[in-house]
Design a protein that fits this description.
Order of helices and strands: HHHEEHHHHHHH
Shape: globular
Number of strands: 2
Strand content: under 5%
Helix content: over 70%
Number of helices: 10
Largest sheet: 2 strands, antiparallel
Radius of gyration: 17 Å
Oligomer: single chain
Distance between the termini: 44 Å
């Protein structure tokens, strides 16, 4: 199979999806290496990485530095939702996506912060790992955005409401490239600061502060986006 059409990344995404759905790639096993996929598909490593990171952000794939990428889940319906209900064009306005996230994510953060201590400690441990990846990925947009999305996705699921978690995961699955463009505009500093402060608030058990910081995070992104338009 050689990919020669224009929407290269989207075609790679579909290729990955097909291999997961038809059972060619097994849960728990390592998928083919980047060099082998680049050669097989005839695409650039950059395009391949963007496609892979979309699935990493959803928790479908897991990348381990120096080891490779593993299939974590084959249940794509659970993370991608019903594609017939919402089309990609619904996500083309990133400002609307951010407005939606501003409504949902602060409350999800509050709910997550109110979970039993054992669950909250587990969440904090996971978030810390994603935050560390963000710190190490400054200057590498795809890896940074994937870790950023993983951070937010974990909080959404930790709310205890699967509808919130699945909805946020679905939004991320359809807006990776738009969020990457936001990162191209704003850089890495703001993301690092907000995620650090949200993590600190969760670690201190301050649910109200964590909620407020998440709302400020989303509002700041919207304000910065509007400033770019101006």
């Amino acid at each position: 199979m050689k990919i020669i059409k224009t929407s290269v990344t989207q075609q790679i995404i579909e290729y990955i999806k097909e291999n997961i759905q038809n059972g060619s790639w097994k849960v728990g096993e390592k998928i083919p290496s980047e060099p082998s996929l680049v050669e097989e598909l005839g695409v650039s490593r950059a395009s391949l990485r963007v496609a892979i990171q979309q699935y990493v952000a959803l928790g479908v794939l897991r990348s381990e530095q120096g080891k490779g990428t593993y299939l974590e889940s084959s249940d794509l319906d659970a993370v991608l939702g019903n594609k017939n209900s919402i089309s990609f064009s619904d996500f083309s306005n990133i400002e609307k996506v951010l407005e939606f996230r501003r409504i949902i994510e602060p409350e999800a953060t509050y709910m997550a912060a109110k979970r039993p201590k054992e669950e909250l400690d587990k969440l904090i441990s996971i978030l810390r790992k994603h935050y560390e990846v963000m710190e190490k990925s400054v200057g590498q947009a795809s890896d940074f955005i994937a870790a950023d999305m993983n951070f937010h996705r974990e909080i959404a699921f930790a709310s205890g409401n699967e509808i919130i978690g699945n909805t946020i995961a679905f939004v991320f699955a359809n807006t990776f490239k738009w969020h990457q463009q936001i990162n191209d505009y704003f850089g890495f500093t703001d993301g690092i600061w907000f995620h650090s402060e949200i993590l600190k608030a969760l670690e201190s058990g301050n649910a109200k502060k964590a909620k407020s910081l998440m709302e400020r995070h989303m509002t700041h992104a919207i304000d910065e986006l509007n400033a770019q338009k101006g």
